[in-house]
Design a protein that fits this description.
4 domains; four-stranded antiparallel β-sheet; single chain; 11 helices; Arc Repressor Mutant, subunit A; SH3 type barrels; five-stranded antiparallel β-sheet
Length: 323
């Protein structure tokens, strides 16, 4: 029986006691479809761990609170829920960026103070049991993330000064913010760019400055964030979605099988232990970088344009090393 189910039963027992129904183990076991032993265990938990002043009324044949001012703790959590909360906070500290650490710590303290009774919050003990390695992130401005959130929520345009790394220059533009997407710890803004007259993806850490404008915009009902991200590969959406096939040798295939790389992926197993990964994406630039990291363990089969780009890149690398 799960801890969540136990908490649900405890809340039901508490409700019936407060409604002066004088519940007992027999009636509760029938209505909640559990054994009498389970109900007695719940009662004992309420008395011994939550401090519930439960007494038995022999005349009415059921339980009541001897102190009617007693209430269930404001927050009851299971050990599993507490662990999940701790893990989410620790991971968030690394994936949201260190600038948000003070806000996250404040959230931990507030929630910890609200947890009473059966579970105590000991973050230091939990930290001694789990270790997180921070990813290599480009630091994002905390205030920018909050401002973008407010702009998305209020459907307000943003003015941004943005650094385009591939051109090595800054541009100023007005965008209609739709969505924030976190890819491997880095934050990306998906917005309609008035300068280019199309939807674009902007790395938040490359935004040098921004302002929330009073100008409102109406979201395009035809725009689907799931479709937009579904045609991307990791952080790169690129152009139109294209069918891609990549062959991985038997050794590399062991690692490829372990993960779901793209929503559209299909794996074709080959007799020698190798495989061909089929997917449809527009982020071919990111696909090229991803494939090349596996060296001779990966080979682009199609499209021909991507295969040629990989060949050119390999030749260029060989030239760097004087091969």
């Amino acid at each position: 029986m799960s801890q969540r189910q136990q908490l649900e039963r405890i809340m039901e027992i508490d409700r019936r006691i407060r409604d002066d129904e004088y519940p007992n183990a027999n009636r509760l076991s029938k209505s909640l479809e559990v054994s009498r032993r389970v109900i007695f265990n719940d009662r004992d938990f309420m008395i011994n761990r939550l401090g519930a002043p439960i007494e038995f009324d022999r005349v009415r044949g059921g339980w009541y609170y001897s102190d009617k001012t007693w209430v269930l703790p404001g927050m009851i959590v299971t050990e599993g829920e507490l662990l999940a909360f701790f893990l989410s906070v620790e991971i968030s500290k690394r994936y949201l960026g260190t600038s948000l650490e003070s806000s996250l710590r404040s959230a931990v303290e507030k929630i910890s103070k609200g947890v009473k009774g059966p579970v105590t919050v000991d973050m230091d003990t939990l930290r001694s049991h789990y270790t997180f390695s921070a990813p290599m992130l480009i630091s994002a401005n905390e205030q920018f993330l909050l401002d973008i959130h407010h702009a998305i929520y209020g459907s307000q345009c943003l003015w941004i000064r943005y650094y385009a790394a591939y051109r090595g220059e800054y541009t100023e533009r007005t965008v209609m913010p739709y969505h924030l997407n976190n890819v491997r710890g880095d934050w990306y803004l998906i917005a309609f760019d008035k300068l280019r007259n199309e939807f674009r993806t902007f790395l938040v850490s490359r935004i040098e400055n921004l302002k929330i404008l009073p100008e409102k915009f109406i979201r395009d009902a035809k725009f689907s964030i799931s479709d937009w991200m579904g045609s991307a590969f990791q952080a790169d959406r690129g152009g139109e979605a294209t069918d891609v096939s990549i062959k991985f040798n038997a050794v590399t295939a062991r690692y490829i099988r372990e993960r779901n790389w793209h929503a559209s992926q299909k794996v074709e197993e080959l007799e020698d232990g190798s495989l061909i990964l089929h997917l449809k994406t527009g982020g071919l630039g990111e696909v090229k970088r991803w494939v090349l990291q596996y060296g001779s363990g990966a080979e682009v089969l199609s499209p021909e344009s991507l295969r040629q780009e990989c060949i050119d890149e390999i030749k260029s690398v060989a030239g760097v090393y004087g091969i």
